[in-house]
Amino acid sequence: MSIADDEAEKAYPTRHWSGTHVKEQFCCDTDDLQEAYLRGRNAPPADAEVEAVAKRLLWNSCKWDGDDDYAAWDEEDAWDYAGRFHRWQEDYIRQAKELLTLARKAANE
Q1: Is 45 exposed, middle or buried (0-12, 13-18, 19+ CB in 10 A)?
Q2: How far is the CA of 61 from the CAs of 56, 58, 75, 92, 102, in angstroms?
Q3: Burial of 58 by CB count in 10 Å (0-12 exposed, 13-18 middle, 19+ buried)?
Q4: Is 100 in contact with 45 (CB distance < 8 Å)?
Q5: Nearest 10 degrees: CA dihedral of 52, 40, 44, 88?
Q6: Among 22, 26, 51, 90, which is least packed, fewest CB within 10 Å?
Q7: pTM for this prediction
Q8: pLDDT for the residue 93
Q9: Hey, how many other C-beta atoms are within 10 angstroms of the C-beta on 25?
Q10: What is the per-residue pLDDT for 88?
Q11: What is the mean pLDDT of each run of 10 residues along the chain (109 residues)?
Q12: Taking Cα atoms as reference points, which of 48, 51, 62 lies closest to residue 92?
């Protein structure tokens, strides 16, 4: 299940008609759909989104080719190293939040 699917299920759990496996249905109009779309576009980024961007920023900005004291195998390994031996994660999370905010602002203008 994707992060978005998981969040949607938590916010709006699947409901069934009493004692059956038949899902409840509801009617909505295009205004309802547009409002839901806009709420999604304007929602703050999820923690998982922020962390994914932060990991990529770290991976792209550092040299992990073995010339340093430590060579990361992949993005997750670099992220783990950055958290254990340095205080880089907080900086990259802050940068990721700023970038995602700018991107969403640009998309909504």
Answers
A1: middle
A2: 8, 5, 11, 10, 20
A3: buried
A4: yes
A5: 0
A6: 26
A7: 0.66
A8: 95
A9: 7
A10: 87
A11: 77 85 85 85 86 91 59 80 84 94 82
A12: 51
